[in-house]
Amino acid sequence: MRDFQLPGRSPVLALNGMAATSHPLATGAALDCLKAGGNAVDAAVVASAVLSVVEPQSTGIGGDCFAIVSKPGQPLYGLNGSGRAASAATTEWYVEHGFQDIPDESVHSITVPGAIAAWQTLLTDLGTWSLRRAFEPAIRYAEEGFPVAPRVAFDWANVARKLAGNPGAARHLLLDGRAPVTGEVMRFPALGQTMRRIGENPLSFYEGEIAEDIVDTVRALGGHLTLEDLACVDVGPVAPVISGYRDLEIAELPPNGQGITALILLNILERFELSGIDPHGERRFHLEHEAARLAYACRDAFIADPEHMRVPVETLISKGFAASLADRIGEHRLADVTPERIPAADTVYLTVVDKDRMAVSFINSVYDSFGSGITTEKTGIALQNRGACFVVEPGHPNTIGSRKRPMHTIIPGFALRKGRPIMPFGVMGGSYQACGHAHFISNVVDFGMDLQEALDSPRAFWSDDEPNAMIVERGVPAAAVDGLRQRGHSPDYRAAPLGGGQAILIDWDKGMLIGASDPRKDGSALGY
Predict the structure, then answer these.
(1) Which residues are catalytic?
(2) Neighbouring C-alpha atoms within 13 Å toward the C-beta of 482
């Protein structure tokens, strides 16, 4: 239970509907939608569109989207809204041109944005509002302006130089060559006009003048995207993958996302008794860290576009496979694995539950901060750099290839109990997300934390800066850091936190909703 003499906040309790996002303006817009008769899917799209304006470093219409939706009496609905590489993007081309990887800020990191197609698919399949209506709050903020929130300003300042290097980004995303500061009012008139056009005709993002502006921008810099690549966007429903952890079942989306990495990690942790140890002590972080390194090594070796995977998902999430991995963890030795660490990235996660208990777990991202750093000059669309998650390695399942989807870091989560959906949840932060899911679920299940405590809890993650390196947040106690060093780790405090997150618990017995939002971002949970 929370100590009311210490800084912190309580979970939010409500009876009718609830939204939790990484920005208060988006949470408010989602709640307004629910009160106006929209359902949870409508409100999730409203919130995501607002976040594309007010938290532009993290998300946008030039990015990708994934979602899991629970509707009472129906199976979980999953949506893969990730785009593909260009048809001409072959491993052979990149090898011939001397690429060893796909650089984060390269035009070659730009893949087809799937978000708009995903939002429209969600509204068509499960929503009640049109995209035009759902876009109204976002357009208002884009055209009339919004005050820049503190965490948004913090992130924006760190990438001003990156944005200044691209004419479209410098024009639309900077003020006289600088990032805006906290409280400064920003407007995105070109983006607002673009969203008006998309609201009237969602296909206009993938064909016509908007699509032409995207393709002209990419091809002028030597990229491969064509109008045909955009017109062939194909997002659609997928069946979530479910695995048990203690008394819960955890649902994640199947590859190309890294969601099954979280299930592998939880399966490993399930082999250890955690409930009696210090949740902020060195043993907890040691076991989680080692389980994560093993799970992420599996991710790097096996997870890719499902059409190119060689090891079945069922094998990777099996309890027997996890047992063999857990046997490699020692109390005072480190597992002999060195997974690739894809840097932490900017993303938004949000969740909404409505009065009928439809629940949405929703995530949208441009990957790195402002994506590739490349923005269309006419339409003001920041283009994602999701293609940087490909490798350039002939024969590897995740090597870049024609119309392939890259291994994807953004993952929505959903917890069930005895088959009944009880909690949409998610943790942002690039590669950290799979570890963040496991950390959050373990906080709730093993340590009995409420949702807000579970999100507030300090985090740690491995790093490739040096052998055995570990990033720890400043909330990790000094005694735990010393203990980690004694176990062979090299922990180091960092200025930026690890990710963010939101969750809503449906208490079916009391008819109540319990929500929480991560303090690492500007967001909030609100209900009515």
Answers:
(1) 347
(2) 3
